[in-house]
Specification:
about 60% helix, mainly alpha, 3-stranded antiparallel beta sheet, Citrate Synthase, domain 1, 2 domains, 3 strands, about 375 residues, single chain
Length: about 375
């Protein structure tokens, strides 16, 4: 079917999956577990294991998994050299994509049937190190090491970003954010990763594909755009005036509406909003965010907030640079991409849809000297 008829293939069933439900039944679930329960009780490592292996780990299994992730933080010397030679002006998403692809040349996956889980763990562990090594080298001239007493990706990322131990509530907020962004069914980047996997390409290539598709502003970057919108107003009064002007001009406000969820809204939104409020409820940033949300609820009730809107302010309260919001998404969504890659490979058939041709018919070739 053509996009013209289906609106970007919205509603078209493109395959089967046992990993995630989006907008079906009780909402968002990872392998049968509700996002509300996972965000309230689990760590990101538990969810990463769940997505990678299909079941929640027990304590011993979780500890073993975390040790592997900690060991996977280390950066090969040749990768450090590559990161040092990527310009400071590079887009952080390009840094992540290049880091993933380069690692595939330094630590190649010879046979994904036996090595895919090793590569998945390696990428989950090393992605924070890739971003932060490049960040500190180009902003402070420092070659960071990857040693840390933090035993989670959430704590490790925040510690290495700020060179100080994060508070427990900050770590917990980071866990929740990573859990909320970990998986979301057949979105653009995930489906692209599955297509890559269906060719029997290696795991590095499938994750690089996911990153490349997420790089596009119509898929990734919505929380960055939401933060820029919030930052454009100094107070609630400016926000009220500005948002109404934008609506009058029919301008798009990022962080509202979703292709799959209906009027019930994105179930991730109230969860991350509660954490944004916990960390920064007494700030102008949060008050402006609530002002924008209230106006949109009144004027555009068909476009409720999605996960990206209050993720923006939550990340601000964690002092994460706005340009790093989407790279953080990679650290989370790699779990979902990898789960889909494994699922695709387990019952593989090359993904090769057809198109409905709408070009000219029966044209006669015209000799070059007659054109």
């Amino acid at each position: 079917m053509s996009d013209k008829k289906t609106g970007g293939l919205a509603g078209v069933i493109a395959g089967e999956s046992a990993i995630c439900t989006v907008g079906q039944g009780s909402g968002l679930n990872y392998r049968g577990y509700s996002i509300e329960d996972l965000a309230a009780h689990a760590t990101f490592e538990e969810v990463a294991y769940l997505l990678q292996y299909g079941e929640l780990p027990n304590l011993a299994t979780l500890n073993t998994y975390k040790k592997k992730l900690i060991a996977a933080r280390s950066l090969p010397e040749k990768l450090k050299t590559i990161l040092e030679n990527i310009p400071k002006t590079a887009h952080p998403m390009d840094v992540m994509r290049t880091g993933c692809s380069a690692l595939g040349t330094l630590e190649p996956e010879d046979d994904f049937t036996t090595e895919q889980d090793r590569v998945i763990v390696r990428l989950l562990g090393i992605f924070p190190s890739i971003l932060l090594y490049w960040h500190h080298f180009h902003n402070a001239g420092v070659r960071i090491d990857t040693h840390s007493e933090q035993d989670t990706i959430a704590g490790y990322f925040l510690e290495k970003l700020h060179n100080t131990s994060p508070r427990e509530d900050q770590i917990r907020c980071m866990h929740v954010s990573l859990i909320l962004y970990a998986e979301h069914e057949f979105n653009a980047s995930t489906f692209a990763a599955r297509i890559c996997a269906s060719t029997l390409s290696d795991t590095y290539s499938t994750i690089t594909t996911g990153i490349s598709v997420l790089r596009g502003p119509l898929h990734g970057g919505a929380n960055e755009a939401a933060m820029k919108l919030i930052d454009s107003f100094a107070n609630e009064e400016e926000a009220t005036k500005g948002v109404y002007e934008m609506l009058e001009k029919k301008q798009l406000l990022m962080g509202f509406g979703h292709r799959v969820y209906g009027l019930g809204g994105d179930p991730r939104s109230p969860i991350i909003k509660s954490w944004s409020k916990k960390l920064g409820g007494d700030t102008a940033t949060f008050r402006i965010s609530e002002t924008i949300e209230a106006i949109m609820k009144k004027e555009k009730p068909q476009l409720p907030t999605n996960a990206d809107f209050f993720s923006a302010s939550a990340y601000r309260f964690l002092n994460i640079p706005t340009d790093y919001f989407t790279p953080v998404f990679i650290m989370s969504r790699t779990t979902g991409w990898a789960a889909h890659v494994k699922e695709q490979r387990a019952n593989n058939k090359l993904i090769r849809p057809s198109s409905e041709y709408n070009g000219p018919d029966n044209r006669e070739y015209i000799a070059l000297d007659k054109r």
